[in-house]
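Raw record, unedited: Arylsulfatase
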Amino acid sequence: MNKPNIIFIMADNLGWGELGCYGGGSLLGAPTPRIDGLAKQGLRLLNYNVESDCIPTRSALMSGRHPIRTGCLQSVPAGFPHGLTRWEITLPQLLSSEGYATALFGKWHLGDIPGRFPSDRGFDEWYGVPRTTDESEFTTTRGFDPDVVDTPYLMEGIAGQPSVNVKAYDSEARRLIDEEIVGKSIEFLIRNSRAGQPFFLYLPMIHLHFPTLPHKNFSGRSAAGDFGDSMMEMDYRVGQIIDCVDELGIANDTILIFCSDNGPEFREPWRGTAGPWSGTYHTAMEGSLRVPFIIRWPDKIDAGRVSNEIVHVTDLFTTLAGIAGASVPTDRPIDGVNQTEFFKGADKSSREGFCFFLKNEMYAVKWRDWKYHMFWQPEVNDMRGKLESPYLFNLKRDPKEQVNVSIHNMWVLGPIRKMIEAMQASFQKHPNIPPGQVD
């Protein structure tokens, strides 16, 4: 069988409740017809789960490992060691070994020093943001001193060559970046499709991360200000990729994924929504864990299917590697499980739950319809501390996580305790890489 192409589009800080197909869209003043249409063509997950922050989620996708293992615990300023060490084996490295052309256009955030740029870590080519999008505000912030903090740059690189600065990443560049990276993505798709080359396109978009600033062509298009305008631009950009794939006639040979890396933005004036779930990213609430996920693979994945089965971001590493014929590493714990059969129509996911960490602490555990909180932080910067008697919620009956039912459901602690102990035992056998570890 020919190896399928893989396109992985990941929005930045798109909440569960913001797209039309997840209950938002026109209701919020920002229709999303292209992504809603994509959902009708494939599988839409209601229980796709990510990590707490940009770096943790991206590291989990690229390595198949929880960030507590890799030391990728949080965003840090430029110039400080961060991201994946070179010991980690990345998804594009596995796909490259199977003959895939690989490219990243967008936000990397997993290393900004030679040896850790995307073109050093399995991507043939890349263009975009090496760190975080909020740096685009630096140069227009009162008191910014370029002698103390380097001016942020958009960068590009080719495998085997040094990555280089292209232009300053400022507020104007922020408005244009998604147009640029989609344009480069389309050129990559056309080039490799015409060459008959299987490809992996990783398109981590910049919307809707703050500052959430739309392209001028979308300014005023929504009924929800800059944030809604940016939502509509994001939908349009995803539509451009869909149209390119369809016009090239490669849809049946292409796995197309659209998802988010984190729960919704919470910073004023850019605030998103997680719909029925409480909380935003940087918490262990369902509004942080659950985000949109849509996968289209015609003739392999049924159109219009919806599932509430649990899938975790680490599973994409294992699943996509398996579909491509690559073997995942066996010399380290890989947390992702292969979800190919589930995606293709099996009723049940290959996982029942997972442990969730914020930085170095295990904050919560999900198992089936249950959520077990050991720390309580319902909102960002509203830390109530470690719980002497952990909370337990049933997420189907109580999606807002408001009614602690632990005293009536002590049996649930059995399987949850097994998950916790298995994770802790693996830490003993395979010590975690500390944050800031040098190569």
